[in-house]
Write a structure and sequence with these properties.
This is Spore germination protein. This protein is mostly helical. It has helices at 15-26, 30-38, 43-65, 74-81, 83-115, 122-137, 141-155, 188-198, 218-244, 255-258, 271-301, 311-333, 336-367. The chain has a single domain, classed as Amino acid/polyamine transporter I. 65% of the residues lie in helices and 0% in strands.
Length: 374
């Protein structure tokens, strides 16, 4: 097959795209399972507190985008870490990307199986999502990034659906009491780790830095995106507390989606199905984006990144990823105990990558200060 420039760069995008990317990746899969892991009303403060820490982390990440290295992409990273270390980081990143994509894809397939397609095979649902993601990604990274505009405009307003749950007669203040723990907190680090992992994802923008304009005002876009994510998490969690109460919220599968079944509108029935369908755009976008990142990380890991990209190589990469997902589904996902381990590992790995990547980049920039590659 003829070479295809999957990573061709003709244009660079402004901070608006960084805002859209960060907000949508933070509001991807974790909001749908958020109440089950937090449960207690006082975790409202946990969302606010961790959101503020996330803002500091984004401040560190913005230093990378305001540096001379960010626009150089691979060359800039090689200058900071060297080829050997960069290949090692690519291997680690490849593993993390495969794990993240597998968890969010299988998780969304489970949602589709529960609410929309109960009789359809999960294997075929997974294949369908990957095929659509593959089709979007086949246009190349530059055009795939543009799709985030459509995704954001179609999905950001969905949070409005939950406003009725914040108003009487559904909302009662005693449902969010106590706002402070009375008898102490039982293992709060688990809930806080989940929240931190939910805010993760912006570190993957490092892979897109050549396509994002290096600028000192990138922090403004990061701040707006993170603030919007905090507001959306608070609305979702508080509305679920008002509707189910903390005593029952962990006994319901996907409370964020289940509560939509009880909304009644004269024009539209089954709001939950409509919500899941629209939210699918968000999943499809990041499936396509992660497919391209996995393909690029694999090429760097094998030392063939200087060779032209090809459709056959991308197809083989996608097939290998699908095989990994099916193996994970059959041997890990279908048993409840293994499911918990798999999700917990993804939560821990995402939290760790979000914590370390901005700090490592900033340290490397400081050490290489004044020495910029040509």
């Amino acid at each position: 097959m003829n070479p295809v420039a999957f990573f061709e760069k003709k244009y660079t995008y402004s901070g608006v795209y960084a805002f859209l990317l960060i907000n949508r990746i933070q509001i991807l899969y974790y909001p749908l399972i958020l109440p089950t892991y937090l449960i207690h009303p006082y975790m409202i403060w946990g969302i606010i507190g961790v959101g503020l820490i996330s803002q500091f982390n984004l401040f560190l990440l913005s230093k990378w985008f305001s540096s001379e290295h960010s626009g150089l992409g691979y060359k800039g990273l090689v200058h900071l870490f060297g080829q050997g270390w960069l290949r090692l980081f690519a291997v680690i990143g490849l593993f993390l990307l495969i794990m993240k994509l597998s968890v969010i894809t299988l998780g969304y397939v489970e949602i589709l199986d529960t609410f929309i397609f109960p009789s359809m095979s999960s294997i075929w649902l997974t294949l369908s999502l990957l095929l659509v993601g593959f089709y979007i990604a086949s246009y190349g990274l530059e055009k795939t990034i543009r799709f985030i505009v459509v995704v954001f405009l179609c999905s950001v307003w969905l949070i409005i659906v939950y406003i009725p749950f914040l108003l009487p007669p559904v909302a009662h203040l005693y449902d969010i009491y106590p706002l402070f723990p009375v008898d102490g907190i039982d293992s709060p680090w688990k809930s806080l780790l989940f929240i931190w992992s939910a805010f993760s994802g912006p570190e993957y923008l490092v892979c897109l830095s050549p396509w994002l304009k290096p600028q000192s005002r990138m922090l403004k876009s990061f701040t707006l995106a993170n603030t919007l994510s905090i507001v959306e998490y608070l609305i979702l969690f508080i509305s679920s507390l008002f509707y189910f109460g903390s005593a029952y919220i962990n006994k319901i599968s996907y409370p964020i989606l289940s509560m939509l079944r009880y909304l009644q509108y004269p024009v539209l029935e089954r709001i939950d199905m409509f919500f899941i369908t629209i939210h699918m755009l968000n999943f499809l976008f990041f499936i396509s984006l992660f497919l391209l990142m996995i393909y690029g990380a694999g090429r760097i890991s094998m030392g063939i990144h200087l060779k032209p990209t090809s459709r056959m190589g991308f197809i083989l990469c996608s097939l290998a990823l699908y095989a990994c997902m099916i193996a994970a589904y059959k041997w890990l996902w279908r048993t409840e105990s293994s499911l918990n381990i798999m999700i917990v590992f993804e939560i821990c790995s995402s939290a760790l990558s979000y914590l370390l990547v901005p700090s490592l980049l900033l340290i490397a920039i400081k050490l290489k200060k004044g020495r910029v590659p040509s």
